[in-house]
Amino acid sequence: MSELRQDLVSGDWIILAGDRAKRPHDWKKKTKRIKAPKNTCPFEDLEKSGNAPIELFPPSDDWKLAVIPNKYPALIPRVTGASERRVGPYSTVDGVGHHELVITRDHEKNIPKMNLKDATELFRVFKHRLNVLSQDPYSNYSSLWHAWGQSAGASIYHPHYQILTLPIVPPDIRRSFEGSARYAREHKKCVHCVMLAYEKKHKKRIIYENAEAIALAPFVSKQPFEVRIFPKKHFSHFEKTSDKVLCGTVDALAFTLRKVSEKLGDPDYNFFLHTAPFRDANEYKMYHWHMEVIPKTSFLGGFEWSTGIDINTVDPDEAAKVLRSNKKR
Ligand SMILES: [Zn+2]
Ligand SMILES: [Zn+2]
User: What is the pLDDT of residue 57?
Assistant: First the structure.
């Protein structure tokens, strides 16, 4: 039986077409990842490749993490601000923003290969950069994402994490925020906290849980093996999160990425952060920051483009079972 499911926050619909699905282990990638050699990697010698760092951690020649400007930025910082203009019936805003990369010193060590201490340190750097960038009066939102592999959008093999600030609030965040605010008005509760409570009671879609965070396959998963990671305590702004919560959330993310890699045959994937915009903190109190992991197992087809409805062929109950299991496949 197929089923249409509606997202509680965004109002989006998906089609869960379980019967058409290959069995979960058929999703396992059969081809091996092609690694780029170190001698052609632009992140091995930052000086030679003209990537002057913005910050190094620790700030010495022995740095382990570096923040560098993106050489091909989508938006460019400017001190004069982002002016809005009309072009006939259309709206435009100047492309003002900061586009940075956070890179590891190590050519190989992505999050699944890091220990918890190093992975948490990486997220402390993200948090620090968001706090710095939030001071720019023309940055209103910061997007933070990672692409692992070419089909996820990475042009360079060496692990790198992107931060791009925007003068506007992106449409997905706005819809997610509006959905959260609407639910809070009607039910006097955070929609994400309500979902977490239900999922915890139900257990079917939980992948991993520690004292601070929870990883689950969303009831309305748009993509096969999509995972969401939430801090358990309701909080709106990633960059103001306590170290303890951050560490717990990173632990849940790292567990998820290790399982994705192990159970699905090291597929390409994206993960990204959804957090409240920098300004108007009070207005966004109802938001619950989280991370999303999307393994690249399928591509949008004509139906998806024509309707905005994704067809997912893996039941999230089944996805959670695969990703939390310790059995080798
Ligand atoms: Zn490298
Ligand atoms: Zn909440």
Answer: 97
